[in-house]
Amino acid sequence: MRGKSGILKWLKYLFLSAIVLLLLLTLVKISPALWNRWVTYPGLEQARNELWQQYRKPPQVIPMPLYQGAVHSHTFWSHDSRGLLPEIMDGAKKAELQFIFNSDHKRHQLDTFPRGYQGIYEGIIIESGTEHRSGLMISPFDSTVIDWDRPEKEIIQEIVENDGLAIYVHSEDEHDWDNPDYQAMEIYNIHTDMKDEEGVFPILLNRLLNPKKYTHWMFRDLYDEQTEILANWDRLNQNRKIVGVAGVDAHNNQSFRARQLEDEKIEWVGPNADTLVIREPNWFDKLLMGEEDKYGWAFKWELDPYFNSFNHANNYVYCDTFTNVNIRDHIKLGHVFVSFESLAKGEGFQFLAVNEKDSLTAILGDSVSLAAASKLKALSPFPVKFQLYRNGQLIEETEENYDYKYRIRDKGNYRIVARLELKKEWVPWIYTNPIYVY
Q: The pTM is what?
């Protein structure tokens, strides 16, 4: 009996040790998310609020309005999104967007335009486009049919010749970079940024243990400066103008949602908008599901709502008239800068060239002779560290300031990176397109 009692005693100790070990391992796993909730994210909120209090409206030197919008967004037309107009519009209005250029995946090899959402909705321009599996995004801006069985270079040429827009997206992938016709490339993409993360579990856990109000900081946790893509962009700009844009790659599809169908069955929808199951509601469904929201979902747990994608990285376009074709034309001209909006609003940022009489001779995206451009200027609504790049090389960096001047000595392509200080870290906020001095 004594031997049996000793064995039971050791088994009890082993069981308790296993429980303690399991609890410790769980604590180790969840501790980064808990640290974010109670320390990191509140600290970032405070730092951002302190930054916002330093806002100063810059003088308006560039004599054109500035319009804010998203490029590379998906809707119900794509196989991997359920996005409908009401939730898209709610996210867009909250992010203060004025235009969205969609990039829905094609449904057939013969791709008919326009399709999906196209027009002006509550004052926001929505333009239809396609993201092909090769990483080409096209916006025809016309009624047409694209045959995707044709060679890609022919499609690009046709789109460009008919005043459409051709953009290489997912710039981490291989493209025909020497193609002479495409006009722009992504210098940032949210999905590209996620690819170097160590699995999706830490992201899910972080979202599970943090309130929705910190979702923007969870997006920022994924951020890595795309140095190789930027270097390639600079290299390409030595040969001809390639406009740099940010792609939000918005899908609103990394989620778990449930809705009641007309036959009173329940549909559970998981990541990539895939149907997980359709069934008669059971006790589990009834436990989780509540009243339907205005989008028709009775249960919803999201990682990437439209607002957070739209608010993460935007494109600001200097444009004389607010129409879809004028915004398109000024994107082609490179009158664009990329802003990471969840840090601070980019409205008011300006990058330009002036002559000896201090008269405006060029803005970002323009080409100007060395004789007509004696100085570069940049103005910011927030104090930033200005970094000036010439032909892809950093040539000057300032202390924290609201404005910047540089006397031009040499020909070249000049672009600005503006960095904000958050908790003693200087993070990229603005990427401008270059001014080309010849």
A: 0.93
